[in-house]
Amino acid sequence: VSTQSTGNLRNMLAHIIKRVKREWQIIVTILVLYVCYYTLTSINWPKAQRRLKTKVEARPPSKEDPWVYQPSKIYPPEWYAIPKHFDPKCQAKQNLFFLRTHQTGTSSVTNIFYRYGQEYDLNFVMQPLKLNLNYPGRINMHYLEMMKPKKGYNILCQYMRYHKMDALRVMPDGAIFLTLLRHPVDQFLSVFHNFGIKKEIRNLQPHHNPYQEFFRNPRKISLMASDEVFHFVQNSMSFDLGLNPLQFKNNTAVDNLIKRIDEDFHFVMILELLDECLVLLRRLMCWDLNHMVYVKLSVNNEYSTGISEEIREQILDWNAADKKLYDHFYVKMQGIIAEQGEDFHEEVRKLKKINAEFWRECYNNVLPVFDGNKIGYSLHDTHFDNRTCKVLATDDVTQTHVIGLRQFKDSLPPSDILMVRNHMQNLNKFNPAMLKWTDVKKALDPDDAPKPKIDL
């Protein structure tokens, strides 16, 4: 009996041990799978996705677009040239393509185009209530052609990546092509701050000096950024203008980009010479000088304070393509300014005076920065209902919403209108000088405006 009970006990123990082993195998397998999952989601997985996307995008399309650029009217070279003196009898140009580069001060310049377009009832190339046109991919040409107004488009100043055929296809003949560049050091620091690169890249979060840590191994660390901000981390101006990231170190490709931009764009502005560029733009477009008035809408040039010379050199080396692009057009801009007549600098002083007068008459003071880098203002009581003062202080996102309501008012659902209203009411708390929802309601024709079932 004792022998039989001992055998049963052994069998029972063997069964228990076997079962425990099997359960531990399951537990270990689950742990291994979890570790693999955590590793794959933590390491530079976007790098592999980007490589795959790059390989796919590098292949030629299977079917070529049948569209061919055939201008209905050829404009003479004088149409695109900047005159040395302003001619009061000149013909105003109302068609322009403004390629917005990121963190280069384009918000203030775009505000000029928004105001001009609304004043003359021009049509903007845009998707309803969106600030970009499928950036950084190709624009949705089918959608834009489907939504094209009867009179056609006049102004494109939304974010998009430059592709010449897309621009020529959507813009009317004789459109002026513009863009804006900024010194690569200030532009990179602005990108680093306003796109939250330190928060995006986990390795930089614990460091007091994220720039120093970033440039310890910039290529490896930049690959840790998500796809949403990866293309901003290096040579983002060149990227916006169409340069392939795989060619950032290719001097021939960079030289070809500069040559191509020089040929395609009629005017490349420089942020550090903004007032001079706006006077030149005024002469090119034949607009009134009051149209060139602007106020600062975001914090863009305060981040370079305290940056060491070593970091500045590393930024320039990391953004070598942007530096070469900027240097070329900065020298070219100085040459254009030198060719202007004697009245040019007087016109620049006049623009600065008009800007100062608008500021003094419209606003009390500057309010604390909000929403990352936006600047708020408070209006003087005497100009509380002055629409020009309000529009000048309105950010580009809100301006896009306002124009979208006007341009797409027959097709927008009530939920989008409610979103715009809530957005404007929230921003008004931080920027009381901007347009209010009541101002937008006045601008819309009450007979034609969409009538949602919500209380506006």
Please tell me about this protein's structure:
The protein is an alpha/beta fold. Helices cover 52% and strands 7% of the residues. The chain has 21 helices and six strands. It has helices at 2-42, 45-58, 77-80, 106-119, 141-146, 164-170, 184-194, 197-200, 210-214, 218-222, 227-230, 236-240, 251-264, 274-285, 309-318, 320-339, 344-362, 387-392, 396-407, 414-428, 437-443; strands spanning 96-99, 155-156, 176-181, 267-270, 363-370, 374-379. Strands 2-1-3-4 form a four-stranded parallel β-sheet, sandwiched between helices. Strands 5-6 form a two-stranded antiparallel sheet. It is elongated. The relative contact order is 0.11. Residues 44-63 and 448-456 have low confidence and may be disordered.
List strands and helices in order, with pairings:
Elements: H1 2-42, H2 45-58, H3 77-80, E1 96-99, H4 106-119, H5 141-146, E2 155-156, H6 164-170, E3 176-181, H7 184-194, H8 197-200, H9 210-214, H10 218-222, H11 227-230, H12 236-240, H13 251-264, E4 267-270, H14 274-285, H15 309-318, H16 320-339, H17 344-362, E5 363-370, E6 374-379, H18 387-392, H19 396-407, H20 414-428, H21 437-443
Parallel strand pairs: 1-2, 1-3, 3-4
Antiparallel strand pairs: 5-6
Helix pairs in contact: 4-19, 13-16, 14-17, 15-16, 19-20
Summarize the structure.
The strands form two sheets. The chain has a four-stranded parallel beta sheet with strand order 2-1-3-4, with helices on both faces. A two-stranded antiparallel ribbon has the order 5-6. By secondary structure, it is α/β, with parallel strands linked by helices.
